[in-house]
Design a protein that fits this description.
7-stranded antiparallel beta sheet, 4 helices, globular
């Protein structure tokens, strides 16, 4: 009995495989894109976006960066003495990326692509934020914000794009 079922399954797979092959007048395989698609299913994001204090310091230009809070969905780092900046990572589950567009008040968002995934970038004088689709109806969010008298953030927001790309690269 098992041999008949297994044989039928192999035959069915072989027929379906051949049927998908195209010829000059028949259907052909869809062209492959070099841009990775956003996974339809949610992916597991590592704690704190899978980055270290050194990764944060390198990306932002802040010195003496130390993690001050961590849980599975949100982490934050403060800069060392003399700097009034914080870096925040958030993982939004079950919230669509377009919903985030209306929640951020840093100004008009610009559309970005990070690791082939859609995202939005907001930028202000002392803060910037990037939100990037991570799979399913989830997205990751990186924020660099200042609260003191310093005139501007240490580096451009494009460095947050690198942190987002690093996080997404670690989920595969």
């Amino acid at each position: 009995m098992w041999k008949q079922v297994a044989g039928a399954a192999v035959l069915t797979c072989a027929v379906l495989s051949v049927a998908g092959c195209g010829s000059a007048g028949g259907p052909s395989a869809a062209p492959r894109s070099s841009v990775p698609a956003v996974p339809a299913q949610a992916v597991a994001i590592g704690r704190c976006g899978s980055v270290s204090d050194a990764d944060i310091a390198r990306a932002t230009g802040l010195t003496g960066v130390q993690q001050v809070a961590a849980n599975p969905m949100r982490c934050s780092w403060d800069a060392g003495t003399g700097a009034d900046y914080a870096v925040i990572f958030q993982w939004f589950r079950g919230v669509s990326l377009p919903d985030r567009r209306g929640q951020v008040t840093l100004g008009t968002p610009s559309t970005v692509q990070v690791a082939g995934r859609p995202g939005m970038l907001w930028s202000g004088a002392k803060a910037c934020e990037i939100a990037v689709a991570s799979g399913g109806n989830d997205f990751i969010d990186w924020i660099l914000t200042g609260s003191g008298l310093e005139p501007a953030r240490p580096q451009g927001c494009s460095d947050l794009e690198q942190l987002a790309a690093d996080t997404l690269a670690k989920v595969g």
